[in-house]
Amino acid sequence: MMTTIDTYAIEGLFVGPARNRWPGKPASAIAKTAIKGPQSLTLTGFKKDQQADLAVHGGPEKAVHHYAADHYADWQAEGLIAPNTRPAAFGENISTTGLREDSAFIGDIFRLGTAIVQISQGRQPCWKLNLHTGQDRMAHLFQKTLRTGWYYRVLEAGHVCQGDQIQLIERVQPKWTVAAVTDARLTKHIAQNDAKELAELSELALGWRKAFSRMADGNLAEDTSKRLG
Asked: pLDDT tens for residues 73-124?
């Protein structure tokens, strides 16, 4: 299904190495810094970027994290981040204005610089957000507000640079916004028939499809203490 063309400027492009930052805690690559010039985007992410724990971060279904710069004003107004906080504060790779969770859809295909990417799932916030931001409820608030951002899988590798465009080229699933699917995944408040539909949504990341399959079977049990703790 083709749609009207929506184009957004890539205002920020961010990468970072995995580092041991907190005693007794696993390494993290949540600290990202802005990078200039064309960057190679492979099927598993930016060549100069890292993920510390590939069991829960990165990989083909979570190759690039996109976060709306629009949300920073909300966090600042709520006193949860400093007034001068700039994008990359939440570990994102891509920052734009005007594209948010309620206007982006699972399965949306974009031209990102010269690469082609597709939205695969929303972000499941974890305890690293709390330590990185100095706010012990930040992961919980990400879930509550649905200001989570989303992940892309890379359909075609290419090069991306700050100042390039991200252009929507196809909307294949106009029913399911990132916000709606992320809300259902994190809260489990979803009708069983909708859970069954999402379990069979091929554009959705496999891990989330499996989770919705369990919900469709009436199994809502999930231990989130490790992720949020």
From this structure: 999 999 999 999 999 999 999 999 999 999 999 999 999 999 999 999 999 9
pTM over 0.70: yes
CA dist 137 and 83 (Å) reads 19
Check: CB of residue 154 under 8 Å from CB of residue 117: yes
- Beta strand ranges found along 38-188 (DSSP E): 39-42, 45-46, 64-68, 94-96, 109-112, 115-122, 150-156, 158-160, 165-170
Question: What token pair was written down for 91?
Answer: 């570990």
R_g of the chain computed on alpha carbons: 17
Residues constituting the chain: 229
For the stretch 187-196, contacts whose Cβ atoms lie closer than 8 Å and that sit 24 or more positions apart, written own/partner, are 187/143, 188/215, 188/220, 188/222, 190/215, 192/216, 192/218
